[in-house]
Write a structure and sequence with these properties.
Blueprint: E1 10-13, E2 23-26, E3 33-41, H1 42-45, H2 53-69, H3 71-91, H4 96-106, E4 118-124, E5 130-139, H5 148-151, H6 153-161, H7 167-191, H8 194-209, H9 217-227, H10 232-252, E6 261-268, E7 277-284, E8 292-297, E9 314-317
Parallel strand pairs: 1-2, 6-8
Antiparallel strand pairs: 2-3, 3-5, 4-5, 6-7, 8-9
Helix pairs in contact: 2-3, 2-7, 3-4, 3-7, 8-9, 8-10, 9-10
Amino acid sequence: LSLFSLDCVITSVYQYQLYVFFLMIRRPPRSTQSRSSAASDVYKRQAWKNTTGDEVAKRMLEGYLFAKEDPFRASTHNKGIMNGIDAVAIATGQDWRAIESACHTYASFKTGKYEPLTHYEIIRKGNGDEKFYGYLEIPISVGSKGGVLETNPLYQNIFQILGFPTARQLSELMACVGLAQNFAALRALAVEGIQKGHMALHAKNLALSVGVPNHLTQEAAEFMSASGRVSSDSAKAYLEAHHLYSELRVKHAPKQVSKPLSTFLIEVKPQTLNETITIHLALDCLDNRPNHLSIETVSYTHLRAHETPEHLVCRLLL
């Protein structure tokens, strides 16, 4: 539920729906339906990425309505929901294929048209307050005892972490994860775009693939982003600069407390050479948060009339 960024309370009821400040599950007797619902204060709790809460809610609602009208967008919308549910199902030894098949069938069960499994709306209260409300209703049939679940130590460890939930509690948990997954994806899509988040993750994966330690992946990703080059070569350049400076720092100041390093990229392309000269520097920073700067040559076509190619024209990227 951490993806929600909401202050919620989890509860379970049988026949009643509660539309206040709660995240809840409704499962009628002898039914495989699990409904999870959430409501939050639009203005105070939804602000994200320098975007006001009411604007975040309105954009998310537009994204949901788009999926409701377009079955192809609804397919991607629901795929994101199942990303979370399938992960829980696989980790707990459930038949994730049956669960996914049932959920996608249920997406077109009510109206005969394939639609989003989640539902979002902005509710205006009598006192004028607005709440962003969303719920997810899906058919889930799972088990929590018997067979491989009691003989496989991996599943036993997972169930121990979850507090040995009953089948009902496990289905509720899956519904909550699906709703949280969709909330986070829809918010990212509506505010900053999915691609930006994926590229940040891609940069970290690249850093790990070339041997950057886990505690430096965030710095390496920021370095690549600042230089405008998200690639293995860029990650290797960061790692080499970091290793070189770390060795020098230990050699000349062995008692110095280690802290994050800032990076400085200089790129020059002299006319007399056929290749670009690139220099990567790693520096101590006064602040605990590292800074990543880049200076790159500008095309000579941008030189002003009184300047010549001998003038080095640079742009500073902060």
